[in-house]
Write a structure and sequence with these properties.
It is built from 23 helices and 27 strands. With 692 residues, the chain is α+β, with helices and mostly antiparallel strands.
């Protein structure tokens, strides 16, 4: 597993086998108490849809840029900004400015038609005409390329006491003048400019902008809106991003192939309202969100990967795998228990599939409604109950007392901890191609190589590996797709895109984009984890447990800072000589673009190691795949908590109380707790002094 890697303890250890059956390795997630969780849903309501950040800034936030973090389970393309200058594209046509040159496709504002009649009846003829003059004056300000905030900024419609009348008036004004918004102050109705309308005018025609905002305010169930065909992919990205940034809680967008006026294939953006968990009600402050439908449950799985179990559940429930949220990935060859939340599924529906899921090694417990999804790293830790069988001495150990060896090992690790390596699960233990190799190919933007590594089969005769083998031999994505079982969601997503776009650099790039971001970044994180493991071994080999000049330590002295780099301190020569810090405070960086490296031989080692993989110039941003790796810090050592153990005769289930272990059927039962992102197999490696 981790050959040549370091130990922090010096006891002899012992031999044994683990994971002889899933029941020998039980993992139970330790949940964070509910009162300590922030209401992230409430926080999100305070942000967009009326976020004023530029598209470029918003894209950086979505890709996870910013300060690096301390590593947890989730540790881990530029979007063009529209011009911020006022342009004549924001113009409009009012009766007061009919002599102005009108841009093709602009909507006309003709009083007395449709909503005009409604406004006359609601406001009276005189006030309705004043509103029209205000609207045209505001548009003239935009047409003349002045400050959008210039001129009369607001217009009062006076007090409107009746709630139903206010609602009718809100709708009529916005349908008649989509470049205006209405707000209520007390009982007074105020009309002012719609900044979002003007910003969209800089991206598409004003007719499209006007029609889009009318669609938005009509709130018709199951309705859609399509922009004009647009062959410019970068421009479509900007429009997608604008709508997501401003109205992402209410709307969703997708590009579709359409025929343009010349009957040629082109792309168009379609907009639709999100599903019924979302309210269509627009208020002065933007859009109000109804509570989404979330159902929480405990997932028990046996001999399954977490993502594989989610694929089974998603297929049965008729939702997407991305509708499930969880705090971390659990072992495959084990029985694991973890909290999970699924969106758009009722508790009753989840209960209905229970018996069918049991046949696939899945059980569902503790089903109940909740108000928010889970997030990676949002856990207190994991509790492990492990059985070690086939106990014996190491071949070089002549001691007769195996029980003493085991007792010595437990006490040593409980006192000193273990080296905090990433475990074999991180890299695909036993696989021909490990996940870090795919991650390296992605970082080097070798998209075709990454795809072929992904589809490298194991030397077994089964439907999954036969499909992979067929694809590598023929590059027939459609044929491989037919051969793959339904639960292989990632493989099928990738193959669909490869069938459509081809097995070339561009096609493979689109293929990777076709699988969820969390799956793409997983491979890159695996590579970063491998580098961290090697760095930890090098650090312990040359400096041991002594804290030296240039080491990085996590210091609480800068606790008030919001930037983690401010909390990571570089040890000075004086501090090293004074033994100010302990080895338990030393951290090493997970490579990324926003971390700092040790200023000693370890920092130099990082640079040389990255150069070996042709990453010396890597900025850890893979724009074509929308991958962004800021990096984080991980403690070199970790401690085990609540460690306990006992011996048992395996077949009889009887605890062993005597001092000597002479029966080969005696097994060791170990229980302990670990912090998030710590690996039980790594802790066992330290205890037993053997690799698995």
């Amino acid at each position: 597993m981790l050959p040549s890697f370091s130990y922090v303890t010096d006891h002899t250890g012992f031999c044994g086998t683990i994971k002889n059956s899933p029941g020998d390795f039980i993992v139970t997630e330790i949940e964070v108490p509910q009162h300590l969780l922030r209401d992230t849903r409430a926080e999100s309501l305070q942000k967009a849809p009326l976020d004023q950040s530029t598209p470029g800034q918003q894209q950086r936030n979505e890709l996870g840029a910013g300060s690096p973090g301390l590593c947890a389970e989730g540790c881990p393309g530029a979007v063009l900004s529209p011009s911020e200058q006022d342009t004549s594209r924001a113009g409009g046509d009012c009766s007061a400015s009919r002599n102005k040159k009108q841009r093709e496709g602009e909507p006309e504002l003709n009083p007395g038609l449709g909503e005009g009649h409604i406004l006359d009846s609601l406001l009276g003829k005189s006030l309705s005409e004043q509103l029209h003059q205000f609207a045209c004056g505001l548009k003239d300000t935009w047409d003349l390329d002045r400050d959008a905030g210039g001129g009369a900024g607001e217009f009062s419609l006076g007090p409107v006491l009746d709630k139903k009348s206010r609602a009718s008036l809100h709708s009529a004004v916005r349908q008649k003048f989509p470049f205006l918004v209405t707000v209520t102050k007390g009982n007074e109705m105020i009309v002012k400019r719609n900044g979002d309308y003007r910003e969209l005018c800089q991206l598409v025609s004003e007719k499209e902008t006007s029609d889009f905002f009318k669609f938005l305010d009509a709130k018709l169930e199951n309705s859609t809106f399509s922009f004009e065909p647009d062959g410019d992919k970068e421009h479509r990205k900007v429009v997608h991003h604008f709508i997501n940034r401003k109205f992402g809680k209410l709307l969703e967008t997708k590009s579709f192939t359409v025929s343009d006026v010349n009957d040629q294939p082109n792309m168009s953006i379609m907009v639709r309202f999100r599903e019924k968990g979302w309210s269509r009600k627009r208020s002065a402050g933007g859009f109000k969100e109804k509570q989404d439908l979330y159902t929480a449950f405990t997932l028990q799985k046996e001999n399954l990967e977490t993502l594989e179990a989610i694929s089974f559940l998603a297929a049965e429930l008729g939702v997407l795998p991305s509708d499930f949220s969880y705090t971390g990935i659990k072992d495959k060859k084990a029985i694991t228990y973890q909290p999970m939340v699924v969106k758009k599924v009722t508790p009753e529906r989840l209960k209905e599939i229970g018996s069918k899921m049991e046949k696939k090694g899945i059980r569902i417990h503790n089903i109940h409604s909740t108000c928010q999804r889970l997030r990676l790293g949002q856990l207190k830790g994991n509790h492990f109950d492990i059985v070690v069988r086939d106990l014996k001495h190491h071949s070089h150990d002549s001691s007769a007392d195996l029980k003493m060896r085991i007792s010595e090992a437990m006490e040593n690790v409980e006192t000193k901890g273990f080296v905090n390596y990433y475990g074999p699960q991180r890299f695909g233990q036993g696989q021909t191609v490990q996940t870090d190799q795919i991650g390296l190919a992605l970082l080097n933007e070798k998209m075709v190589k990454a795809v072929k590594l992904f589809f490298t089969p194991e030397d077994t005769d089964d439907p999954v590996n036969n499909a992979k083998r067929y694809f590598l031999q023929t590059e027939d994505a459609k044929g491989a797709l037919v051969m793959l079982p339904e639960f292989k969601v990632r493989e099928k997503m990738l193959l669909r895109a490869l069938h459509r776009y081809g097995v070339n650099h561009e096609g493979c790039t689109k293929g990777w984009l076709n699988i969820p971001h969390s799956m793409r970044i997983f491979y890159v994180h695996a590579y970063c984890s491998k580098i961290w493991n090697e760095a930890a071994s090098y650090r312990l080999k040359i400096y041991g447990s002594k804290v030296v000049e240039g080491d990085l330590v996590f210091s609480e002295e800068n606790d008030e800072s919001n930037f983690l780099n401010d909390k990571v301190h570089v040890v000075t020569a004086a501090e090293g000589l004074a033994n100010k810090y302990s080895i338990n405070q030393v951290v090493l960086p997970m490579v990324g673009h926003s971390i700092k490296y040790p200023s000693n031989k370890v920092g130099q080692w990082y640079q040389e190691r990255l150069s070996k993989d042709e990453l010396q110039m890597c900025k850890f941003r893979v724009s074509p795949l929308q991958l962004n790796v800021p990096g984080c810090y991980r403690p070199i050592l970790k401690n085990v908590q609540n460690l306990s153990y006992f011996f048992e005769v395996s077949e009889k289930g009887i605890k062993v109380e005597d001092n000597h272990l002479n029966d080969s059927k005696v097994s060791l039962h170990i229980s302990f707790d670990l912090d998030p992102s710590c690996y039980a197999t790594v802790c066992l490696r330290e205890i037993m002094k053997c690799d698995f």
